[in-house]
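One-letter codes give the sequence; the fold follows as tokens. Both lines appear below.
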Amino acid sequence: MNSAYDAILLIGFGGPEGPDDVIPFLENVLRGRNVPRERMLEVAEHYNHFGGVSPINGQVRELMDALRPELESHGVDLPMYWGNRNWHPMLTDTMQSMKDDGIQKALGLVLAAYSSYSSCRQYREDVAKSQDAVGDGVPEVDKIRVFYNHPLFIDANVDRVRHAMNAFAASSPASDIHIAFTAHSIPMSMANHCNYERQLQETCRLVAESLEVSEDRWQLVYQSRSGRPQDPWLEPDILDHIQQVHDEGVQNLVVMPIGFLSDHMEVLFDLDEEAQEKADELGMQMVRAKSVGTHPKFVQMLRELIQERLDSDIPRRAIGEFGPNHDVCPVDCCPAPARPQRR
């Protein structure tokens, strides 16, 4: 067992936990990005619709409560810390606490399954900024690999989709159900320089094949785009896709947020509100599958990912067309997208 690591650091996105947090939180999220203020205020209303509280911080706490006993039961006895990119507990404050506690080297678990600038490299940059802010004696942090093709991640998603499919009446055979896998859209200037889209397609394919769902009965689509309307982002959008499959005769629809790990605000608003409203308008039956959340297979996978870094003899599991992702990101991977020129 490798004793080089003396802590685990969960690195999250963060979210407001009250109405007064919403605007400062969104200003943190959008700092340095070319997003119109009108768009920020529009997103603020999504949070206000739910009392100004995002469920994401509570969901991280639930995940930590599930992961601790899973680790302990397998002989992993390391303290667990948690820091966010955009809201309290802020990553810099957590890094200071780790320094004060004498932590020297931690395993960083970014709560994102896929590779892109915003879901991988930016988190590593945030860690570096926090280390610089804390200064001498700050702990080192090594990031755990992305896990889009880990067999237990696939199993957890399969279980969630199967449960959603079973929600349809027995009179609706599985062959009449279409699955829309959704993920957060990103700008094409980012997508063209990372494996985000390829990894998402592979996860969807593995889940669909496990469920014996044919290629013509599922599609990867996108949601939650922001930025300027004239800038190209990954498509199709979930609302456009619902209209398309309805026009093709689909009546029974499962929407699976494959790109998200918990049912946070973008799932609750963009899918449970907007997508559900669109399906209702068209007279379609829509069931939204749960994200992996604290599914036992997902928690088990996180434990395996930690163990494989503590003990080099433990296999690094992956299935499908691609092997396990790298532990150390190449210098040039997932570069920041070029900023569009103002017009």
